[in-house]
UniProtKB/TrEMBL annotation:
Domain of life where this protein originates: Bacteria
Gene3D superfamilies in the record: Periplasmic binding protein-like II
Name the record gives this protein: Extracellular solute-binding protein
Source organism of the structure: Streptomyces peucetius
Pfam families, A to Z: SBP_bac_1
InterPro entries recorded: Bact_solute-bd_prot1, SBP
Length: 414
């Protein structure tokens, strides 16, 4: 794919951005209305107009891949950073935005540094944040905790105490949608971060598969096995679905006391169990692990989505101008009104108008204070590594491999 893209780039004079128009591909979902409004506003004063192309979510990745290998590639395109753009970076198809971030005040100071860094590759900036943040956090049932004299866990020992307490009351400590491997991935992401620090996965993300052999990876896998053996996820978690609503339902019904999930769990529960949200839903950061070297303020999850610029565009300056509008107060206000938490440096001033200001402020401060924000592994890695990695994670949780076998399999990924 990368070679085809390079050849297409060399063989076409038309390239991206023919005429006086910038074509922008965006993932087609409910949030598109915010991007369309930004485009409409930009076009009022720009000589070069932006044309937004909303691509249905299920088709987005394949359509972008095909387009980037053709003469009709978009000038600007939505992505997840990390592994999602690595083939295009390797093929020289994306503008390195680092010089613009260094010299432009709006870009340099407009966004939370941890979010900009999370979407970068090899120390170079290739994307401008353009949607809300989605950190993974620990949700808990406030009523169940209060009834059992427990506080939200801050340490691993606190977590173990909560697990034992709820097991004794015949309450599953953690809801887990084990049929969806990405829900299991969250546990390994945070455990590795807390035990070994963010640099362990950073090494892996940059292409060094030997990083999977770091002792912290094995320790994280061993802790997962301990949780499973202790019954932290119950007995049937491998047949419970998150996408089908099984895990959120267990949590909302009080049959599970906690749920490690992305911040979208709030809106999921609000839509399905609003009374639970109002009365019982609490949230906190992932606990520390004794002896771990990771920063307790570090975060994992989906920092945000990004706009990147095609290196073949004929209107790079106009494209940069459009991307700078993502730092504007007006754009941030539109995200907040839609229930998102912007990644702009000034967003804290706007969160009082969020559907839940308390939850919004917690998220924002969580990310603002984070020295690192590790992108979800399945998005940070290229598909040829992410897919087998998820398979191995699922095998570990299903008891079909040992922690040692898990590490060996990941080290073999090339």
């Amino acid at each position: 794919m990368a070679m085809a893209a390079v050849l297409a780039g060399c063989g076409s004079d038309s390239g991206a951005g023919g005429g006086r128009t910038l074509t922008a591909y965006v993932y087609g979902d409910d949030a598109v209305k915010v991007q369309q409004a930004a485009v409409d506003d930009f076009n009022k004063s720009s000589d070069v107009k932006v044309k937004l192309v909303s691509v249905p979510g299920a088709e987005y990745v394949n359509k972008l891949r095909t387009a980037m290998g053709s003469p009709n590639a978009p000038d600007i395109f939505f992505n997840w950073g990390g592994g999602s753009i690595k083939p295009y970076v390797d093929a020289g198809q994306i503008v390195d935005l680092s010089p613009y971030f260094e010299k432009d005040e709006i870009l340099r100071r407009g966004f939370l540094p941890s979010v900009v860094e999370a979407g970068s590759l090899d120390g170079k900036v290739y994307g401008v944040p353009m949607r809300g943040m989605q950190p993974v956090m620990l949700f808990y049932n406030k009523t169940l905790f209060a009834e059992n004299g427990l506080q939200p866990p801050k340490t691993w020992d606190d977590l173990q105490k909560a697990i034992n307490t709820f097991k004794a009351k015949k309450i599953t400590p953690f809801a887990l949608g084990g049929t969806d491997a990405w829900t299991q991935l969250m546990w390994l992401e945070y455990l590795l971060d807390r035990i070994g620090g963010a640099d362990v996965f950073k090494k892996i993300r940059h292409g060094d598969s030997s990083g999977w052999g770091d002792p912290a990876v094995l320790e994280a896998a061993q802790k997962v096995k301990e949780l499973i053996d202790d019954g932290a996820f119950g007995k049937n978690f491998n047949s419970v679905s998150y996408a089908g609503g099984g895990a959120p339902a267990l949590f909302a019904q009080g049959r599970a006391a906690m749920h490690l999930m992305g911040s979208w769990e709030y809106s999921t529960q609000l839509g399905k169990a609003p009374d639970f949200v109002k009365k019982d839903l609490g949230w906190t950061a992932f606990p520390t692990v004794a002896g771990g070297t990771g920063d307790p303020n570090s975060v994992v999850g989906n920092p945000t989505n990004y706009w990147s610029i095609n290196a073949r565009t004929k209107h790079k300056d106009a494209a940069i101008d459009f991307l700078k509008t993502m730092a504007s107060k007006e754009y941030s206000q539109a995200l907040v009104a839609g229930g998102d938490i912007p990644t702009t440096a000034n967003a804290s001033q706007l969160l009082e108008k969020s559907p839940n200001p308390e939850f919004a402020a917690f998220q924002y401060e969580m990310v603002q204070l984070a020295p690192s924000f590790t992108l979800s592994w399945d998005q940070a890695l290229e598909a040829n590594k992410a897919t087998p990695m998820l398979t191995e994670i699922n095998k570990l949780f299903a008891g079909k491999s040992t922690p040692e076998q898990f590490v060996a399999a990941l080290k073999a990924l090339k």
